[in-house]
Amino acid sequence: MKSRTIGAGSVIGEGWQKFATFLTHAGRQQPGREGGFVNMPVERGSTVVFPTVEDMEAQGVHAYDHRLVYGAMGNPVQHRLEQVIAALEGGSHTQVVNSGLAACSVALLAFLKSGDHLLLPDSVYGPTRRFALGMLARFGVETGFYPPRADEATLRAHLRPNTAVVFAESPGSHTFEVQDVPRIARLAHGAGARLLLDNTWGIGAFQPFTHGVDVSIQALTKYPSGHADVILGSITVQRQEHWQALRRAAIELGACGAPDDCWLTLRGLKTMAVRLAQQARSAYELALWLESRPEVAHVRHPALPGCPGHEIWKRDFTDASGLFGVELVEGITQEAMVAMLNGLNLFSIGASWGGYESLVLPTSGGLTRHHEEGLPKGAAFRIQVGLEDVADLKADLARGLDGLSS
């Protein structure tokens, strides 16, 4: 494709190159003089045995140190993965848990208590909204919702004296609002609250702790594993006090990662930079092409100059990912769009993203919002761009869109 310059001389896809060397070498075995495998082995186990009671008791004090204490507190492959994710996110400690949703829920439980107020962006991942309005509500935590692109006065008005956590997700995983995270961090900290961020879209492209985030959450299911065969999540912090609270919650909840899933994710991370570079380039090219189609009203891709929040993305992100949204013009019904999606050949229909395969998912008609802002006005869908040739993806979409026009 023809390179399209955005921001200060950067090109979509090239931001991932600076991670290639780090990811290739992170988490590898260091063979001794007699050689050895480059990848660490998978160690499965529950019980950890010790020579003496005294040894067991001495090791127990290391439950906060990524050390082998008991299977439910972590395993050697999990600990290695935690080191890699912490370095990638720019934090000091990472806790790996069994899913992306578990990463959201464990993090929220670690920093909230009965009587607290939680502030979520209206664009938040649906299961996180469900957890807040379900389990957290039963535990006595009240949840409010703010417009994801709220200005300072609006956001300040949503804060309460008992707001303990402000949550952000930038961009939103369905409507792709880019949030002004540094401003949210400043207002949250000024109100005595912590800022938690779902950084799954921005892994490697957004450094959370340089922008004021206290806790960064990842669905490792997505780009880190990269092959649509793992469910895993991570929570990363930078400050020791946050690590103490997070690790204590993880131990009390029995939250950990299975060794095989951690090993597969470590393997996936080795190729994440090259996969994401291609997926980001292909997605951007596809988004530009879709903007030119008469059936399309809006393309929600943060790297496009016309997308709301583009200037914030250009300021804070070093690159993009392969996930974006499309809104069709008025007059194309939801039923017609669904028929088009059903007829695509190269795009499977699925709710996840970040793997090697291209996916589509309807995003109109099923979104829950407290505020009208950001909701698509027409039929809309989300595209996850995989590793297929972008010309083939265009041809598949073109056939479907031509059918809508006719």
TrEMBL record:
Record keyword Lyase present: yes
An example molecular function term from Gene Ontology annotations: lyase activity
Cofactor: pyridoxal 5'-phosphate
Keywords from the named record: Lyase, Pyridoxal phosphate
Top enzyme class: lyase
InterPro entries found in the cross-reference section: Cys/Met-Metab_PyrdxlP-dep_enz, Cys_b_lyase_bac, PyrdxlP-dep_Trfase, PyrdxlP-dep_Trfase_major, PyrdxlP-dep_Trfase_small
Catalysed reaction equations from the record: L,L-cystathionine + H2O = L-homocysteine + pyruvate + NH4(+)
UniProt superkingdom: Bacteria
Repressor found in the keyword field: no
Family, as annotated: Belongs to the trans-sulfuration enzymes family.
Name used for this protein in its record: Cystathionine beta-lyase
Native organism: Bombella apis
Taxonomic placement: Bacteria, Pseudomonadati, Pseudomonadota, Alphaproteobacteria, Acetobacterales
Gene from which this protein is expressed: metC
